[in-house]
Every structure is written in C-alpha cells, then in structure tokens.
Amino acid sequence: MAINETLLVTPAAMTRIDRAAVDSGLDGFALMQSAGAHVAAVAVSQFPEMRRAVVMCGPGNNGGDGHVAARLLGQSGVHVVRYGRQPGPGGDAARAFDICPGPLHPLADWQPQAGDVIIDALFGAGLDRPVSQEIAGVIERAEESGTPVIAVDLPSGLSGRTGVPTGACFTARHTVTFAALKPGHLLMPGRALCGQTHLCDIGMPARLICSDDPVWRNHPGLYREALPAASSAQHKYSRGHLVVFSGPLISGGAARLSAMAGLRSGAGLVTLATPPIAVLLQATHLTAIMQRAIKDDADLTDWLNDKRISSFVIGPGFGDLGKARSFIRLLADTGCPVVLDADAITAFASCSEKLSNLFNDKLRLVLTPHEGEFRRLFPDLADDETLSKIDRARMAAKQLNAVIVYKGADTVIAAPDGRCAVNADAPPWLATAGSGDVLGGLIGGLLAQGMPPFEAACAGVAQHGEAGTRAGANMTAEDLVMEIGKPA
Ligand SMILES: NC(=O)C1=CN([C@@H]2O[C@H](COP(=O)(O)OP(=O)(O)OC[C@H]3O[C@@H](n4cnc5c(N)ncnc54)[C@H](O)[C@@H]3O)[C@@H](O)[C@H]2O)[C@H](O)CC1
Ligand SMILES: [K+]
Asked: Which of 156, 179, 235, 238 lies closest to 26, judged by CA?
C-alpha cells in the first residue's frame, strides 16, 4: 500500500493503474471504499461546522467514491443529501450506490442553504468533454452562494492532464486524490482550482504506481547526487568560472543580480562581461565579482581563448538583440554550457531553428523563458490548446536540444530526452522584478560547477524557491539573492 508523492500520473495512466490493480487480484470496490472514506474524513475534519453534506455524484467511479462518502457521513451522523445520476449497472459505482441509503435527487434541484458543504463527485479522471449547461449552472450557484467545495480526485471540469478547465469548473477548497497526483493538481490554473490537495493512500500497491513516461514533481531525488560537492582540495578555478554578460549603462542591474546569484551558488569565480561604456558604472557596484570589457565580437573571440571559463549566462538586461545573436554564436563554439534568458531568448523570436543548429553537439543549452518569451520562440506550441505546459516544454526541449525552464507559478523543467519536472513549491512573491535574473545566474553557477543541465535546472529552480521562502513576502530580488546558498 502506498502513495507516490513525487510521480505525476496522467488520468489515462491512472486508469491503466486501476485496471492493473484489479487484474492483479485487488478488489476495486475496496479501493473505492477507501477513497470514499478519505473524502468523508476530510469533510468532517475540515468543516466541523458543516450542517449538510451535499454529495453530487456523476455516472462513473468518481460518483462511486461520492456514494461511499455519503454513506459513511450519514453513518457518522452528518445530514447528507445526494444529487446526480445513477451509475450504470454492474460496476463498483453501482454497488456503492446500491448500499447507500436515501434518495438521489436531480442535480438541478439543489438550492444552497447555510452550512452546506458540496462534495463534488461528478467527474474525476474520466472527464473527457466540457460539463453540461446544467452542471455549469450548479457550479455558478455554488460560486454565487459561496458554498465550500471538496473535490473528489479533481474539481469537476478540470483536466487532470493539462490543469486547464475544459469548460465550467468547480473551484474547490480541498481536493482529495488517490495514490499519486495528476499533472492538473500542480499545473496552473488547476493548482489554484484544487485548493488544498490531500494525497491519500487507498491501498494501491507501490509497484503499480509507476509510468513508462514519467513526469516528476521537482524534488531533491532528481538532482541531489549531481550537486557540486565541497572538497578541501578545491581552488577557485576548480569550482568553476561563470561569465555573465552585462547590458549597457541603463540596464546593468539585471546582470549583476545574475552574477551575484552565480557566485552565491558556489561558483569559484564570476566575471561580468561588460560593454566598455558601462565598466566604470558596474565597478562602483561590484566587489567579489570581476569585470572584463567586451565591446564586440573581436573582443569576445579573443577572450574566449581563455579555457578557464566554465559557463555563460546571457540575456538579463542585455538590450541589443543583434549583438546577443552574434555573441551566442561565439559562445556556442566554446563547447561550454550556456544559459539564455530574457533578451537572449527574444533575440531568436520566431527563428528558434537557428538556435538549435548552434547547440546540437551535446546537451549544454538551458533556456529560461517565461510565458511571453516562450510564445515568442514557439508561437505554434503556445497556441496549440490540446497541449499541456508539460507537452509544450518537452517539445520545445526536443526542438532545440536544450533544457527548457518554462517559468511560472508552475515552472516546468524539460530535457530533450523527455525527462520532466514540475516545480510547485515556490512562493507567489517570487514573481517580482529581477527574480528571473537571479534564477538564470543560479543555474549558470551550478553549470559552472559541472552539474549536468537538467539537474542544474531542477536544483536551481528548487533553490530559487527555497531562497524566496526564506526571504519572505515583500522581498526584493536583492533580498532573494542574499538567501541563496544558506542552509534550508
Ligand atoms: N485512482 C484510483 O486508484 C481509483 C479511482 N477511483 C475513482 O474513479 C475515478 C475515475 O472513474 P471513471 O469511471 O474512469 O471516470 P469518471 O467517474 O471521472 O467519469 C466517467 C464517466 O463520465 C462520463 N463523462 C466524462 N466527461 C463528461 C462530461 N463532461 N459530461 C458528461 N459525462 C461525462 C464518461 O463518459 C464516463 O461515463 C477517479 O477519478 C476516482 O475518483 C476509484 O473509485 C478508486 C480507485
Ligand atoms: K470530482
């Protein structure tokens, strides 16, 4: 018996797991009993003031969980009313329906009363189309009346695969799900529509909770072994040398944030490659970070002969898109890992194929686009509504032979070989000016220390979130950068 806290299982894969469980001799009805019991337990523990449990049941097994919860709540003295559709004969849901006493009312009959708590057991993993007008009306009534909702498995109307509603959708205070999270529990807006998600053990064997195409919640198991290890034999060059490209006079702060983040991530040396006109200005702000005046391609080519450079970050506050493109071509020739952020991403708007040609030797390119930057580079992927954010990041990673860090409240990290993680642990106040510059530098610093790109990106995104949590609400990017590298 188990839950898997880090694997994300699509609804289709969960259906296969359910089937495998039954095929291997497990009692599907027992799983449903356990699922319904968890739902009832969440209802009584989270809403002790509940006067009436309004259990809305759909025609499938999600509805079956609802019938079980209704029976158990009734047995514990809670006033229960059931609405919805009777399941077809023969399955576990029909059995759950048969042993639950009391009538089943038509859904449209529900009139909100003070003290109602809705248990939404209309659709879960089996949702395959927008909900009907009738259900949309009930959802609207629930919202208008402020009736709290506990969703069984997923809020009805939410796609567990994409995290995007297929039409009208409940907004739940709590979601009770089983065995493993679905992508829709973490991807936005799904995560917000789920409220607090409770992952419950219903007796599914651990060996069955698996996937041949795994997507993970970002967690240390993905990168721990690749983290740079401190050793007394190290000197500053062996801890890596990160180069961050500065923009002109007016926008040098972004590169400074990246550089500071890289240094605090543990890189031995960080140098700002600065346009000559901005060198003096940058010098007044820098202490541990070094500088090199780089005016043009010739200066850069000359400097790149120094083999003691380990990685590059280019883009934050960079400004000149043409110069970004020609610098990136030169960086590609070094064979070193490169992080492209902000202007360096925009520089390849609608011509991402030029980028893929530059970095097709080995995996050493990391891109950190936010929503708008992703769209600029991959308009077709961004516009395809059948794709989830996970699908988009994976396809972009394959196209560019790069690790894609598709940023947001639900940052998705994808590698060209299909490895993929969703980060859902960053505090909302990370969405602040300069935060992305810090992330780019942090990943660049980990790359400088020899971490492979996917692991560096997963670790960087996690450490960025942890630093944000330590910095607290109302932090600035300057506060954030000072939290990097501190113990958790
Ligand atoms: N994960 C587990 O180990 C367990 C999960 N359980 C619960 O089972 C559901 C999934 O059940 P399933 O029967 O496959 O799907 P649903 O109940 O979500 O719905 C299927 C049913 O509804 C029809 N349908 C789909 N979308 C719509 C729509 N928009 N409008 C009308 N009808 C729709 C579809 O055609 C089917 O007829 C899972 O979520 C868990 O809650 C088990 O109980 C325990 C084990
Ligand atoms: K549901």
From this structure: 179
Q: What residues are in contact with ligand 1 under a 6 Å CB criterion? A: 14-15, 18, 31-32, 35, 58-65, 123-132, 152-153, 178-179, 202, 204
- 172 labelled as ligand-binding? no
302 among annotated binding-site residues: no
Query: Which of 451, 97, 79 has the alpha carbon at shortest distance from 266?
Result: 451
Tell me how far the alpha carbon of residue 346 lies from the centroid of ligand 2, in angstroms: 40
CA of 140: how far to CAs of 107, 137, 155, 171, in Å?
A: 13, 5, 14, 10
DSSP structural state of residue 158: B
Q: Considering every ligand atom, which ligand is closest to the CA of 174?
A: 2
The per-residue pLDDT for 236 is: 67
- Which strand (E) or helix (H) includes residue 15? helix 11-23
- Runs of H (alpha helix) within 336-452: 342-346, 352-358, 371-377, 379-383, 389-400, 435-448
d(CA 457, CA 313): 13
Of ligand 1's listed atoms, the one at least distance from the Cα of 21 is 3
Specify the residue with its C-alpha closest to ligand 1, atom 9.
62
409 has binding-site annotation = yes
152 Cβ contact list (under 8 Å, min separation 6)? 35, 39, 62, 65, 66, 69, 119, 120, 121, 124, 175, 176
Model pLDDT for residues 382-403, shown as the tens digit of each residue: 999 999 999 999 999 999 999 9
ipTM over 0.90: yes
C-alpha distances (whole Å) from 362 to each of 13, 181, 337 are: 32, 33, 10
CA dist list (Å): 180 to 101, 160, 265, 413, 467:
31, 12, 32, 20, 27
In whole angstroms, what is the distance from residue 58 CA to residue 66 CA?
8
Counting atoms of ligand 1 from 1, which one is nearest the CA of 132?
A: 30
- Residue 434, marked binder: no
pLDDT given at position 252:
93
| pLDDT class of 255 with cuts at 50, 70, 90 | very high
361's CB contacts (< 8 A; 6+ apart) are: 335
Domains of the chain are: 4-213 (3.40.50.10260), 220-483 (3.40.1190.20)
**Which ligand is nearest the CA of 160, by number?**
1
Q: Does the predicted model carry a pTM greater than 0.95?
A: yes
Query: What distance in angstroms lies between residue 228's CA and the mean position of ligand 2's atoms?
Result: 44
Phi first, then psi, for residue 43 (nearest 5°) are: -60, -50
Backbone angles phi, psi at 150, to 5 degrees: -110, 120
Query: Where does the pLDDT of residue 113 fall: very low under 50, low under 70, confident under 90, or very high at 90 and above?
Result: very high
Buried-state track 172-189, b at ≥16 Cβ within 10 A, e below 16: bbbbbbbbbbbbbbbbeb
pLDDT mean over 414-421: 98
User: From the CA of 153, how far away is ligand 1's center (Å)?
Assistant: 9
